[in-house]
Amino acid sequence: MLKVAVVGASGYTGIELLRILHCHPEVAVACVTSERSAGKTVAEIFPSVRDCYTQVLEHLEPVRVADKADFIFTALPHQAAMEVVPTFMKLGKKVVDLSADYRFRDPAVYEKWYEPHMNPEVLAQAVYGLPEIRRAAIAEAGLVGNPGCYPTSVILGLAPLLHNGLIDSSSIIADSKSAASGAGRGAKVDTLFCEVNEGFKAYGVASHRHTPEIEQELSLLAGKEVTISFTPHLVPMDRGILSTIYAAYTGDLPVEQLLELYNDFYSNEGFVRVLPPGAFPSTMHVRGSNFCDIGLTIDRRTGRVIVVSAIDNLVKGASGQAVQNMNIMNGFPENLGLDALPLFP
Ligand SMILES: NC(=O)c1ccc[n+]([C@@H]2O[C@H](COP(=O)([O-])OP(=O)(O)OC[C@H]3O[C@@H](n4cnc5c(N)ncnc54)[C@H](OP(=O)(O)O)[C@@H]3O)[C@@H](O)[C@H]2O)c1
What we know:
Layout: E1 2-7, H1 12-21, E2 27-33, H2 42-45, H3 62-68, E3 71-74, H4 80-90, E4 94-97, H5 107-113, H6 120-123, E5 127-128, H7 131-140, E6 143-145, H8 149-163, E7 173-178, H9 193-196, E8 201-202, H10 210-222, E9 229-234, E10 241-248, H11 255-265, E11 272-274, E12 292-299, E13 304-311, H12 315-329
Helix pairs in contact: 1-12, 3-4, 7-12, 8-10
The chain binds NADP nicotinamide-adenine-dinucleotide phosphate.
């Protein structure tokens, strides 16, 4: 059994990790941390795991965590992650970090959009953890920077088009909508019930921090610098991300063949489902699962291809993808613990 720690177990991605790991046959959760709830059991914070987890939440002391676990998930806010990840690495532990701290190839990009980076030398060892694009490197990695939720939906939606040079890469617009759990469990006015319920708004317009992460990966796929327009929205749901992505179509394949190309690109990918012609995804049909559903069409009137992708932000957009990465890093079958079908209705 692989002994695992969930650092930041009292947050939304932390409890989602615990939910998924409970059904993982090769893993034992050996350590869980929280600052504000240290001393309480996980079930006291999350009654959903009553009788399934009896562990007591501890303060985050990196050496003690590393003593107890061989594999560590850091489900912390950015900056807090980079304070502890180097210690885990130094002590020979493998890490999947769910924050943005280890997603960027160029520390200057991180510093422009986030804060100063405390350990660029550790960042240089990290692999961007999108398995469908970078599986081989993930398998060899000691540290994986787990992708952001919006980036997962946009990059998977566009990868076959960019890889095959079928769109004008300067014309991309990604219009994405996220559920409120994307903002984490910490109390904030913006995510209070009355601020979210019955409303639908854009935020981070032309400035959201996921923009450079999406651009980094799309540029690598296209083999040239890609700049996009990305507008996130907050919708009154608990879980889910739906991205509608537009780009000028430069290919000459009809939509049926374009879908075949998507099916070929993702033919070995158990978690990406390409929908048939005329069908488009819904967050409702991926909820609680590690699936990314993709539908697309060509709008002949405007000359644009329109791709729609849906994920559960807490699963394929965070904790499910983190477990997928853990499986790859440890040589486990990639779907272990991740076979749950979407929760519908
Ligand atoms: N939510 C999503 O959909 C999503 C998707 C992809 C990636 N992410 C990323 O994943 C990370 C976790 O997100 P989340 O939504 O789970 O956040 P969250 O609900 O706010 O949980 C944050 C966790 O970190 C702990 N924590 C906060 N500050 C800390 C510090 N200084 N030292 C030690 N522990 C600290 C909290 O513990 P206490 O408050 O109990 O002390 C809590 O357990 C973030 O970096 C986020 O950007 C989130």
